[in-house]
Amino acid sequence: DRFKRETDATNRVPKNSMKTMCACGSERPYANCCERHHQRGEAPTDPVDLIRARYSAFAYRMPGYLMRTTDQQGPEYVRDAIKWEKELLQFCDQYKFKRLSGDVLGIEFEECTYSGPDVAYVQFRAYMLGPGQTPVEILERSKLTRYQGKWLYFTGTLVEWDGAAAVTTSLSGWMCPCCERAGAALAKTEGAGLRGRKSALSF
Questions:
Q1: Confidence of residue 122 (pLDDT cuts 50, 70, 90)
Q2: Any residues with CB less than 8 A from the CB of 124 and at least 6 apart, and which?
């Protein structure tokens, strides 16, 4: 079962989940937010909740959760689980999801629309710090699909991007290898405002 709890590389999961604000930026304690998806096996029944849980999974270094909530029929799914996990961990270790002050960066949602009962599109801005504490802001439009009543990440389009070019070398489910390929092309462009590219974020 791709949704059941598993042992994950969770060395950044809050030790006191009732007193630590969730990394997704909901302004709720982790215990009352994404922990139920990460630790208690509750699958998100809302598209926005899935995006929140995937963002915080990157922040807390949980590759298993990201892999498990990616649609196996989508372009972001990687059959080589060992390689995929390694790439996700590399990204998690390269980027930070909170300020030096300890405040979370989080995500902001712009819209959530449906094209049917089992397909949703979520547009959101995600924030993080890249190498050298460089601020990174990404506007992504994600496609999610529902499988047996539970939402999965299918793919995403990078609408806008602002920050270190290096970010494109590791986010599509948040940046993973897909972004690495897109990133090579992005690095050749000038400035931010990259539109219509396949996302490397796979939130």
A1: very high
A2: 51, 107, 108, 109, 110, 139, 140, 142, 203
Q: Is the pLDDT of residue 24 over 50?
A: yes
The span from the CA of 156 to the CA of 14, in Å, is 28
* DSSP code, position 113: E
More confident residue, 198 or 68: 68
User: One-letter amino acid identity for 118?
Assistant: D
Contacts (Cβ under 8 Å, ≥6 apart) of 23: 30, 34, 55, 56, 59, 60, 97, 98, 104, 106
Scored b (16 or more CB within 10 A) or e, 109-123 reads: eeebeeeeeeebbbb
Higher pLDDT, 123 or 103: 123
Q: How confident is the model at residue 8 (pLDDT cuts 50, 70, 90)?
A: low
Decide if 22 contacts 30 (C-beta within 8 A): yes
Q: For helices 47-59 and 81-94, what crossing angle results, to 10°?
A: 70
Q: What is the value of pTM for the model shown?
A: 0.81
What angle (nearest 5°) sits at the alpha carbon of residue 181, between those of residues 146 and 125? 55
Q: How far apart are CA 59 and CA 11, in angstroms?
A: 10
How many whole angstroms separate alpha carbon 159 and alpha carbon 167?
A: 15
